[in-house]
Amino acid sequence: MQVTWFDSNSWLWEMAGKRILVDPWLVDDLVFGHQPWLFKGEHPQPHPLPEHLDLILLSQGLEDHAHPPTLSVLDRQIPVAGSPNAAKVARELGYEQVTTLHHGEVFTLDRVLTIKAVPGAPLGPTLTENGYVVRDLVSQVALFYEPHGYHRSDLADEGPIDVVITPMADLALPLVGAIIRGRKGAPERVDWLDPQVVLPTANAGEVMYSGVLNTLLKTDGGPAALAQRLQAQGRSTQVITPIVGQPVPLDLSAKRSVAAQ
Predict the structure, then answer these.
(1) pLDDT tens digits along 207-223
(2) Domains of the chain, first to last
(3) Rounded to two decimals, what is the model's pTM?
């Protein structure tokens, strides 16, 4: 298994011989609601578009997960799976094969991978976006991803999971509180899912942010704090901080994979 981080929440996962592009923001700026004065993200240089993709997986319909300029330059014939909000964005952009995943639903990719949608970030009183549990049906290796640090107690029923991709720091606004909950959420996920490897998401690697909201955001925690906590607990879980654009091969224990069958 191999993963590549493209900054922010954008990933390429290679599992069971399949290539899954996740929450891609690869070109142009990141702006919410056409208001760059409020918030703007910029890549110092555009990323090359990954080739030979088997699936685009979208956790949310917001621009930092279903980025319209990026989705507009990718091949519309690539299958897409995503939350109802994200699936709507993909269909409006002309994608031909779009699967909407409601919480609890499972999508099977070419009979070698399953992707189960689980509750993720609440974006209002009636809208909760997706996290995902992805399982390699051959090796039984499993991955969990949710980009805002939200989860429900029944997530523990999905464990053990080999790879967890989760925020490791809180990102908070005054009067609003944490919009990304990683400082306390990441240790809890490790406790529940007992992963071999945990990687951070929602970090800023090379991207540059500006705007009014960016000046108000406060960060607390991070990969180093989580690694220190896990070490103090005597856990063997590895905390790996990837470098933008560099593939990370994950050497997962065969014993764990067999035990998960």
Answers:
(1) 998 988 788 878 888 99
(2) 2-259 (3.60.15.10)
(3) 0.93
